[in-house]
Amino acid sequence: MSAVIPVSADWLSLREPVDARSRSLALVENAGRMLRPPLTIHDLGSGTGSMMRWLAPLLPGPQTWVLHDWNEELLRHAAATAAIDAAGRSVEVQTRVGHLAELREADVAGASLVVTSALLDVLAAPEVEAIVRACVTAAVPALLALSVRGTVELDPARPEDAVFEASFNDHQRRSADGRTLLGPDAVDVAAHLFAESGWTVSFDSSPWRLGPGDGELTAEWLDGWVGAAVEQRPELAATAREYLLQRRAEREAGLLSAVVHHTDLLAWPP
Asked: Rounded to whole angstroms, how far apart are CA atoms 233 and 228?
C-alpha cells in the first residue's frame, strides 16, 4: 500500500487555473485522434477533479469519468462539481477509493484513456510501475500531465536559487515509510517503462509561468519550495528566512516571476 501524501483542497483550487493554462493542448489533440466516443476516462489521483474539468470540454462525448483517489473527502468534492464535454453535455462521474500501488488491469479495463495530473513526481517506483502495467495490460492510452522536472527559473535570479533547487529535488527523491520517491525522475521512469513494452511515447513541456497576476499562488509555491528544501537540509533555515523576506518584497512590488518546469507525457499502444 502506498503512503498517504496530504494535499489540501485549498491548494488544489489555488493552482487549478495555472494548471489549466500550462498543460499541453498538443498532446490532448493527439490523444483525441485516437479516441472514439462514448468515452470512459480514468483519472488517477484525481483530487478535486481539476483534470476532468479541464479535459472534458476538449474531448467529444458522451463521457464517463472514473475518479480514483485515496482521499474520500476530495472525491466527494470532485463528484459534486460539474464538468461538460465538447458539446456541452454533462459528464457522468464515478468515484473509487484506493491506493495506486494496488492498481490492476481490471481497475482500468475497458477505459478509453487513463489520465493523471501533478501526480507522478510524488510517487515511488512501484506505484508508477503499477500505473504503467495496468495501462499496458489493458491496452489503454495514458496522458500523464504536469510532472515536475526539478528546474526552476526565478527572475530576478539570486545565488541562493540553485541551492534551494538542489535541496528541494533531494527532498522530492527522499525515502519515507519504506518508499523512495521518484520526484523529477518519475516522468522518465514512466516513459522508459512504456517504451520497454513497445508503446509509443510523446512528450511536451508544460511549465508554470508565474507573474505578477499570480501573487497568491507564487507565495504559496515559494513557501512550499523553500520549506521542503529546509526540511531536507535544516542548516539552510537562516538563509531561507532572509531569502523569503527578499522574495516577498519583490513579489509585493510586482517584480518577481517564476517558471516552474513540468513535462506532459502521452503513451499509446502499437
From this structure: 9
